[in-house]
Structure formats: C-alpha cells, structure tokens
Amino acid sequence: MTQIIKAGIVGATGYTGVELLRLLANHPNVEVCAVTSRSEAGVAVADYFPSLRGVYDLTFQTPDDARLNECDVVFFATPNGVAMKEAPALLAAGVRIIDLSADFRIQDIAAWEHWYGMSHACPDIVPQAVYGLCEMNREAIQTAQLIANPGCYPTCVSLPLLPLLKAGRLKNGMPLIADCKSGVSGAGRKAAVSALLCEAGDNFKAYGVGGHRHLPEIRQTISRLQENVADHLVFVPHLTPMIRGMHATLYLHLQDGTDPQQILSDFYADSPFVDILPSGSTPETRSVRGANLCRISIQKAPQQNVWIALSVIDNLVKGAAGQAVQNMNIMFGFADTAGLNSVPLLP
Amino acid sequence: MTQIIKAGIVGATGYTGVELLRLLANHPNVEVCAVTSRSEAGVAVADYFPSLRGVYDLTFQTPDDARLNECDVVFFATPNGVAMKEAPALLAAGVRIIDLSADFRIQDIAAWEHWYGMSHACPDIVPQAVYGLCEMNREAIQTAQLIANPGCYPTCVSLPLLPLLKAGRLKNGMPLIADCKSGVSGAGRKAAVSALLCEAGDNFKAYGVGGHRHLPEIRQTISRLQENVADHLVFVPHLTPMIRGMHATLYLHLQDGTDPQQILSDFYADSPFVDILPSGSTPETRSVRGANLCRISIQKAPQQNVWIALSVIDNLVKGAAGQAVQNMNIMFGFADTAGLNSVPLLP
Amino acid sequence: MTQIIKAGIVGATGYTGVELLRLLANHPNVEVCAVTSRSEAGVAVADYFPSLRGVYDLTFQTPDDARLNECDVVFFATPNGVAMKEAPALLAAGVRIIDLSADFRIQDIAAWEHWYGMSHACPDIVPQAVYGLCEMNREAIQTAQLIANPGCYPTCVSLPLLPLLKAGRLKNGMPLIADCKSGVSGAGRKAAVSALLCEAGDNFKAYGVGGHRHLPEIRQTISRLQENVADHLVFVPHLTPMIRGMHATLYLHLQDGTDPQQILSDFYADSPFVDILPSGSTPETRSVRGANLCRISIQKAPQQNVWIALSVIDNLVKGAAGQAVQNMNIMFGFADTAGLNSVPLLP
Amino acid sequence: MTQIIKAGIVGATGYTGVELLRLLANHPNVEVCAVTSRSEAGVAVADYFPSLRGVYDLTFQTPDDARLNECDVVFFATPNGVAMKEAPALLAAGVRIIDLSADFRIQDIAAWEHWYGMSHACPDIVPQAVYGLCEMNREAIQTAQLIANPGCYPTCVSLPLLPLLKAGRLKNGMPLIADCKSGVSGAGRKAAVSALLCEAGDNFKAYGVGGHRHLPEIRQTISRLQENVADHLVFVPHLTPMIRGMHATLYLHLQDGTDPQQILSDFYADSPFVDILPSGSTPETRSVRGANLCRISIQKAPQQNVWIALSVIDNLVKGAAGQAVQNMNIMFGFADTAGLNSVPLLP
After folding, report:
1. Is the CB of C243 inside 8 Å of chain A's CB atoms?
2. How many C-alpha atoms does A36 have within 13 Å on its Cβ side?
3. So which residues of A are the catalytic ones?
4. Residue of A132, A135, A119, A115 whose CA lies nearest to A216
5. How far apart are the C-alpha atoms of A309 and C219, rounded to whole Å?
6. Helix pair angle (D322-332, D134-143), 10° resolution
C-alpha cells in the first residue's frame, strides 16, 4: 500500500510556491491539502496560476484557516523572516518543516542578523535545523524535523566543491573564485522595477559585488568540510536575461596530484541528481531546465595551475523547490526520485 | 500486467524528435527501442541532447540498422518528403505509423503537390491515412494504421472551431480570420539565418501572408465539418520572439442566437487536453508550456457582431509530439493521459 | 544662426521620458533645461539613467523648482491625469505643450472620463488641443499651443488607414479588424508583476479584449476621415515578449477597384517617416528599432476580398517620444528630421 | 569646408558590416561609395537590410566591380582569412585599411597560424599593422596605413587593464582571471544551429574553456605593457541570451598601495569613449547599447586582497564597428566623436 502524507505550503503565490505545486502534483506519496496566502485568501489556486487549471482543486487560505498543524510536512515558500515566526508552533505540534527561505540556514545568529537585517525570532531553534544540501547531509536529513533548504547559489557552488573539500584537496590560502550567473526568477515574483522585462531583458550585469547574503552561507558549508579555505572565497553574482537557470564558474587551486574528475565521479556515482560530465564538457543551463539536476564539469585552464569547475542547476528546482521535495523524500523514506523524474525541457 | 509496446523514432535529432523522447521517457507503456538519424548515426542520444543524459541509453542508428519493422509503432519526426518514401514498407510489415510531417495530411494529392513542391511518392496510401486531430477523429484513430499528425497552426485554429462547425454555427459567406502567432521552435532545428537569436529575437513579423502550407490543411478540416466556410478563411501567421508557444486569435461571424461558450464547454466536457476558459479570459501561451493542452476562450467584440476566440498550445506538444503520443495512446488503448500528465512549466 | 529653444520634461523617469532625453541630446535646436520628478528630485539624470552618463549634466527637480514657465516647450511624459492639472497654468504663461499622456486625446469628455476613470480637470481646454498625428494634422500642429501626442496603437493603426479613409475607400458596414502586438515597454517603467521578465518573457497573450483605452482614440480618428467605418472597428491588442516594437495586422474591406498600394505610396511620397514597402513585403519591428519610422505594406489575402495591411513602429519613438519631437519640429519650424535621423539598430 | 573621404566596405552582409553602415550613415566626413558581397552582388543594400531603407542607395557589388582602390579607406568586415589576401594590393594602391577580422592582430605568425588553423597569406605585411586599440595606440594609429581592429573580448578585457599594466601595478606571478560574457551577435550572422533562438535563448553556458582565439590576442597586449603577467591570464568566455553586449569580470591581484580607481580615472580623463564609474558601481551592458562606449568599475572583493574590475561594451560597436570608425577618425584627423555620438538605446 502506498504511503500518502499530507503537505502544506505557506506562501504559495511566489515562484518557489508554484514550483512546489508543479512537482507535488505528480508525486505518488503526497497530497497537498493546504496552501496559504494572506493576500490571496479565497482565490482558487487554478485561477491564480493558469498553468494549474485542472490540476488542483485547492483555494488559498489564511494561515489561521489552513490547519497546518494537521499536516505531516509544511513547506515555507515565504520571504525571509516569516518561517522563523511560525515554525516553533508547528514543530511543537509535531509537524516536520522544510523552510525554503533563509531563516534557518546560518548557525551563527549574529552573522544571520547582520546579513538579513533583522533580529532572529527563534535563535534557540536554529541549532536543530539541518542544512538540507542533500548530497552533504543525507543522514541528518532522514531524522530532521526542521530543514533549512539551501539557497540557489550555495547549491550551485557547493556541489562541485563538496567532494574536493571533503577530500581536503583545496590549496590553503589561495583565492577561491565563484563567478555566478542567475536567471531572473531568482529575484522572485514581486513587483520590482529591476526585474521588469524591459530592465533585465537584453542586459547583463553583476550585482551584490560588495557583499551578498549567500556568501556567509557558502562559507559556512566550506568551513565544515576543509579548514583555511572559506575565508578566501570571492563570490560575484550576475543577472542574466533568462527566466530559469544558474551557472557557476569556479576558479580553484587544488593541491598537486589531485584528480578532481575522479574524485567527483566517485563521490556522485550513486547520486541520481548530480551528473559529472566528461572532462572538457561545458554544461548549459537548459540541460537541466525544469529538472532536479546539477550537471558539473571540471578541467584545467590551459597552461595554468588553475582548475575551472562549471556547474549548472535550475535555480527553482535543484536550487529551491526540487531540492525541498528531495529533502522531503529523504525525510519520509520515499524513493529519491519520487515526483522528481521529469525530463528537462529542451528547447 | 502492464502492456509495453516497442516504439521507433525516425529522424530524432530535431525538436519534435527530442520532444517525443522527453514525453516517452516517462510513458508507462512504451519502450523506445530505435532512434534513427543518417547524419548522427553512432552518436549516443545522451551526448547529442544534453538534457537526456541519464535518461536514455540509446544510440542513433541509420534507418537500415534500426530494424524499425520490429517496432509496434514508428514516429516520423522527419522533414516533409521522407515518411512518404519509407512508410509503405513499414505498413506492409504491420507497423503502425504516426507521421509528424505533412506527407499524409492533405487528401487532395494535387493540392499537396502544389503546396509542398514535390511529387507524392505514395498517393495510393494517402486515403487510408487518418488525420490525427484527436478530438475530431477519435474513433478512426483507434483502428488506424497510419496517422497524419496535424500541423501546429491547424491544431491551434481547428480546436476552437471544431464544435462550432460541427453544430453548423458559422455564418455562410463571411470572412473567417485566423491571426496566428508562433514561437520560433516551429521553424525547426535547422541552421537558418532567419531563426538566429539575433534575427528572430526582440522582433515581430508576419510571414507567409501570400500563402502558407497550413492554409489548405485547415480548409480541409473546416470543409469536412460545415459547408461554405472554408473558402472564406484568411490565415496570417506571425513569428514571435519566444521558444515555445502558439496563439491563435480568431475573428468569427456566428449565426444569431449562438451560445459558443456553451457549445465549446459541452463539446470538450470530457476532453482531458482541451480547456475552455470562462468567457472574458485571455489564455497565455506559458499556461500550456511543455504540456499537451489547448486552452481556449471565446467572447464577443465590444459592440460588434464579431466573436473573438483565443486559443493557445505549446506548438511542440499539443501542436506536434504530444498530440502524436495522444494518438498513440488512442491507437493502442492506453489511458489518454499516459505519458502526458506533466504540469506546465511556469515561469 | 541656429535657433535654440528651451525644453522642459515633466515626469522624466519613465520610458518615454528617457527616450525624449535620448532624442533631444543630439537635436541641433533644443536645449533641455529642466527635467522634473517628484520622487527623484535632487538625483542627477546621469545617475538615474546609466545610459545618459556624460550626456546630460541635469538634475531632476520638483515641478515647483523647475521654472517650467520659462521654457519654450514642455513635454509631459507623465501618467494620465497629471498634464490636465498642470497644463492650464503653463498655457497661460505662453508655454507650448506636448502631452505624451492621454489627457487631451479624446474630444468627447464623457467618453474620456468613462475610459480613463476620472473627472477631467480642464474640459474647457480640450477643444484647443491638436491631435498630434503629424501626417494627418500637419497644418494645425504648426500653430498649436497644445498637442495631444497620439497613443502607440492609434499611431500604428491609423497611419495605414489614413490615406484610404481620406479617399473614402473603406467599405461601409464591414468589419475593420486591427490585431495588434506590442512590446512590453508599452506598459511603462512601473513596478508591476505582469511586466516582469519572468511573467512577460517567453509568453504571448491578448489583453484588453473587452475594451482598451486606445479604441475610442482610433475611432475618433477614423470618424474624422470617413463615415460609417469607425463603429465597425474591432481592436485586439496582444503582448509580445520583446522590449520595443509594435506590429498591427489590419484586415480591411475596400471598395471595388481600389488600388491601396498606389494610394498609400502617393499619400506618403514626401513623408520622411512613413515608408510604404513594395506589395507582398512583410515589415518587421526591428527594422524601425530606435527610429521615428512607420513601415507599412498592404496586400490582398489569397483568393479573398480582404486586404491585409501590416504596419510597424517603435512604440517608444514614432509611437511616443519620436512623434513628440516631430510635433515640436513642426511647431517651431525646424527641419522635420532634426534630432530624428538615427538609423534603426539592427540587430 | 568639410573634408569628405570615400569609404568602401568589404563583406558588408554580416553584423559588423551593417553596423558600419549604420554608424557611417550619419558621419559628416564619410561617403560610403562601395559595399561588396560575393553572394549578394546586385542586391540593393536597402532590400537586404530593411533597417537601411531610405538611408543608402547602394547596391552590393563583387569585389572586382567595386573599384575599392579608388577609396580613401576600406573596411574589411569579412570572415578571417579574406583580408590577408586582398589587403596587399589595396595597400600598394595607397588605400588605408581597417581590418575588423583577426588577420593582422597577432604579430607572432606561428601563433596566429596555430590558433586560426590556416597559413597566413602575407606574413611580411603583418609587422606594419597597427593594433587599433585606440586608447593604447593613438599615435601609431594616426599614421597607420593598416589597422588591425581588436576583437571584442580583447577590447573589453584590455581597457580596464591598460592603465594598471602601464603603471606596472599587477602582481607578478598571480593568476589574472577574465570571466567574460557575450551576447550572441558575437557569433556573427551565419546560419549555425548553436546560435538559433531556440538553442541560445533562455540558456547560459561557457565555451572555448580549453582555448579561445582571443586568448593570445589579450596576452599580446598585456605583454607589451607589463612583464610576467600575460602568462598567468585565465580567460573563460560565456554565451548569454541577448543580442548585443559584452561584460568582463576581472579578478586582479594588485601590488600593495595601488589605488586603481585613481589610476583609471586619471588615465581616461580625456577619453570620450571610456567611462570610469564611481567605486562600488556595477555597469550594465544596456548602458552602452548601440554606443561606442566602454564603462568600467573597480572595487575590492570584501575582506580579500582580490580586486574586481567590471567592464561593459557593445560588442558590435566599441567591440567592432564603432572602434573601427574611431580608428578611422584618428587616422584622418576627424573629431573623435564624428559619427559616434549616438546615445545608448535604453530600454
């Protein structure tokens, strides 16, 4: 008999919300029974998202009406600062939580408060949050009650680094450069001039060069894996005129004798969602569009001692909603690929 | 026990080919056992289409090596003029064929030869071809051995008209205008200056105003359903700077007293892939991106006796590969939605 | 000696504002001496619009500080409802006004108030406003003190119709269909979810089918030129995923014996900004990108009595700021092409 | 009296060709009297490029018919390998040449032949070619008879480096990383699957990671300015889904005590086409769209000893045709900004 769990989504009117709804629609073990939105309460999901007509018969509810404490799992697809207020009561009610916002990603509360510009509402709960980078923390995720789903940049940057850091192969004290490019959906579905088609279209620019919130998150991951590397991270995000997709270009200094192709291939041999390409390949973002995949290549820069790792994800899937569903699958013992077997949409 | 059939795809290096591969990857009743390409024979499908890495373990073969006659069904995703040469032998071997090209769409051979600029290789076989507009010809499709899969424009234009024509509600002798807009993938995956990002991007234009190959195909459909309408069709296609998606804006003269909203809603009440929107709605192409759906609305022009029907499809899915799989499902008695339940990708 | 006039721009932070600034930067007869913005007062224009660094040394001012009454001409690039409040005082001070908003476009005050949802602030002044469709009203523009600069759709639709209507060649009582497609910049530079790259990108849809504000404006123009035609106009605008550009596809019924190619060519023989293409051509929007041009073709639908006119403009130039400068040139007796000789940007 | 020179363009059917035509159309000192194309000989320029209708009355000619030796200057907008064959005869006839292809960019013939995969047709002439990076070689350009117009990447990467290298401020032996992103027009106007809207659109990828032809060109420039730096250059180009625009993100190690903001500002104080932004700025590609500008910012990575320089150009203007016109202006003593004063098109 198939196990079916009840899922709720808080703040389901944004891009990670609608992406969760898309992925869960075909999940064999999940029934979405509550979606909340303060602003759209009373509106049918199928009216709000025309792509979901005929798929869901749900109506947005206020958080109060939604009886989220009867769910087995609740996803927070909310702006930063919401989950930290609502999580404690749900956790106390025995609900497992997967937070797609940044509220529980940084263990250093002072650092979190600095980068996110607010006081944390439940600092005592942060230590029990498991950082949901599935390929790093699988065991802890299985029993976690609270998952901090990673940010999109941290996922895209950390996956190629993870095996190398775990093996201690980064050179101490040398710069580790992450030049990253994101599609515009990373900015979310809020009215903002900078994300208009006429502003972000046919245009390319860097942003957050002086400091981006995902920098401390990536550093935290690095520092857990190898010493004396995290401090040397340089991270520059760029906005690229496309809807979905993220590309990281990493410039690495590895210790002599390292065979990163072998290390990566071995590490991810059994991972259904990380694909190590043959050396010399160049992954493209559309090769993962709509799918919970990270494709990675690594090669040496010509005539240099610098290694170049290229990594692509769909920022809304492996970089957000897909990884959240993957976390849920691990937490509840479902097949890893349940709900996540869609083939990338190309072209 | 699940029935599994063997499928082959001829000419699988184009956009309809890779879309068939995407859809069939998750089809519970189909094993793709042969994909052919003269130019790419010997190349692994997963190397050619980076989106299919890890999905297929197939290699492109020459048509000769591919043993297509051992398949239960063969899809032709080839340029016009190929299927008509290869179909007869396969039909003789008992293989059922779904041709995504135009070779068997037009019953009037002389008209076909005029519009397609070549002699037809097997005019005697054309009469047995069933026009695979599923919502029109479901019964004939069930037993067909040869399906002429409709063109993208004809699908998008015919679906809103079908119930009205069947009920005889178009006004005789009045112009029937189909102003259509297509994404660039309709031009296929061949090297052509006009389809370059720098030519077709950030640009909008009409084309084929003096005559387009889909005009006789739409007229043939109309003439089968109601008299004295087809000749008054005006069809102007336009190219719009997006990858997938097709939008038809139809200007109709209906007989007095017609309630087209009711007629359409009733006709498609049980159709899983045609969605009639509430009157006054405006369907958008992204609401069907990647899905085998046609969404339709109809309303009266303000203060006029002209009705405006709006119809959207993904030209590669309901307008090509998805409808082909739907035809296959009907032919083999599978569930209509088998392999076709993916939710539109939004954003 | 070159005549130099002083120009002011009210509300210069939007797309028509920055486009005015671009065009006037190279105008030999104009010095822009005031740009106003309530929200950005005190900000340097070159800081606000990075494209204008090194071009202007101006700072946004409040309307009060800007001494607009010392200008020879003031452009209103404001949302609807602003110019009607501020125009009377400037007119009284002898300043000539070109209003790019809709405040003075409709002579029927009741109709204006119905479509724009507000009371008109100066209905007594509306009659003196000249509708600035340059190719229609050149003489009145020369002496006008107040110009109502036409909307983008009305410009694109009216220019191909103008010679035919003037010659009385439209068939009475037959539908006149204007199927129009606009780039997203037509929606302006305000934060709105519907204009986000992730909403409007890779997407196509109709809007305003039940009624659009430009409908009464086009009807007003038609009714001034030929009787019994305006009421039969059907107008459906669509949003196409590009930044600039507008395309009108018109379906016309002309009186027997009409030679529209000749009529259009003759009418526009001396117009520097309207280009009649050879019959059978299909103008594309990028052929006018950034330029004050309208390119038009006309041909008969195959085997039909319906004529198809295709018309393209850059909605921000001939559809807004460019036509405004053209109006200014006519008003002040400058060369028609002064400031307007830039060649379209292709690709 | 205004001096007017005669200009010819060889191979004017590509993007750099049409861009030269756009810029020269408004140049006060140039008459374009010959444009050649073997494939389009006999076709009117205005028919081939719809954007140029009404601008040019020229017809493409074969090189033989074009009497290029009567020109004062000839631009080669040809694929690599053409100019080197035709230049010697024109030089002998006293014609000055500006080659937009790569034929004369690399002084090391063996290196050129290695990277471009052909034998050089006139190695003896290469030494007299002046590398046309205007801000580096202004004096030599004034008297040059043969200009090697720089590549787009080399221009975008070299301009921010030039003042720092000239001042000897790069740290010896440290990696110098140039992570570059280009719009698709950099691939030219040839039919290629990889540049189709459906392949390059909504997609981001690196390419040429194992070696790109612009690498030796950049290294040659660097090595002329400072020792022990060129060998440490790492260059990774990426393709970004837009038409025009190029963005370089440079990661630099500077000697202690360097004030790069000051060095750059001083060096370019009188350059009309290089704009140094305030520290902390992030230039965007659209801020230079259609204009002969390079905008640059430089800042320190947070808490690191790495400097980040950001540089944007329009690859077809300052990266190709605009710089070619700038070279011509310098060669013939025209105003630097003649023909180059168009304001960037935004949006």
Report:
1. yes
2. 23
3. 152
4. A115
5. 61
6. 40
| Across B159-163, average pLDDT | 98
* Alpha-helical runs (H) found in chain B: 15-25, 45-48, 83-92, 109-116, 134-143, 152-166, 197-200, 214-225, 260-267, 322-332
What whole-number distance in Å separates Cα of residue B243 and Cα of residue B316?
10
Active site positions of C, annotated: 152
CA-only gyration radius of chain D, Å: 20
Name chain D contacts of A251, Cβ cutoff 8 Å.
175, 177, 179, 234, 251
Domains, chain A, with CATH or none: 5-128 (3.40.50.720), 153-314 (3.30.360.10)
Nearest 10 degrees: Cα torsion D128, D134, D140, D143:
90
The secondary structure of C73-100, three-state, reads EEEECCCCCCHHHHHHHHHHCCCEEEEC
Cα separation of D131 and A15, whole Å? 49
pLDDT of residue B323 exceeding 90: yes
Q: What percent of chain B has pLDDT over 70?
A: 100
Tell me the pLDDT band of B2, cut-offs 50, 70 and 90: confident
CA distance D231 to D222: 9
Note whether D177 contacts A: Cβ–Cβ < 8 A: yes
C-alpha D175/C-alpha A307 separation (Å) is: 11
What is the predicted pLDDT for the residue at B295? 98
Catalytic residue among D71, D122, D134, D152: D152
pLDDT tens-digit map of D255-281: 999 999 999 999 999 999 999 999 999
Low-confidence ranges of chain D (pLDDT < 70): none
- Strands of the sheet containing C30-36, edge to edge, are C30-36, C5-10, C73-76, C96-99, C146-148, C130-131
For Cα atoms C44, D263, A235, give the angle at the middle one, nearest 5 degrees. 75
In degrees and rounded to multiples of 5, residue D131 shows phi and psi of -70, 115
A224 sits in which H/E element: helix A214-225
Options B71, B134, B152, B294, the catalytic residue: B152
**Hey, which residues 284-313 in chain C have their CB within 8 Å of chain B?**
284-286, 289, 299, 301-304, 306, 308, 310, 312
The whole-number pLDDT of residue A173 equals 87
- Is the pLDDT reported for residue C173 higher than 90? no
Query: Considering only CA atoms, which of B177, B188, B185, B184 is closest in space to residue B205?
Result: B184
- Residue C2 burial by CB count (10 A; 0-12/13-18/19+): exposed, middle or buried? exposed
CA-nearest residue to B313 within chain A is: A51
Contact criterion met (CB < 8 Å) for C195 and A197: yes
Q: Kind of pairing, strands D307-313 and D294-300?
A: antiparallel
Assembly ipTM: 0.97
Name beta bridge partners: D234: D177
Tell me: the pLDDT tens digits for D315-338? 999 999 999 999 999 999 999 999
**Where in A203-272 does DSSP place strands (E)?**
205-206, 233-239, 246-252
CB contact under 8 A, C242 and B241: yes
User: Which pLDDT tens digit goes with each residue over C282-295?
Assistant: 999 999 999 999 99
The three-state DSSP-derived secondary structure of D161-208 is HHHHHHCCCECCCCCEEEEEEECHHHHCCCCCHHHEHHHHCCCCEECC
E strands, chain C, in order: 5-10, 30-36, 73-76, 96-99, 130-131, 146-148, 176-182, 205-206, 233-239, 246-252, 274-276, 294-300, 307-313
Chain D 79-118, CB below 8 Å of chain A: which residues?
Answer: none
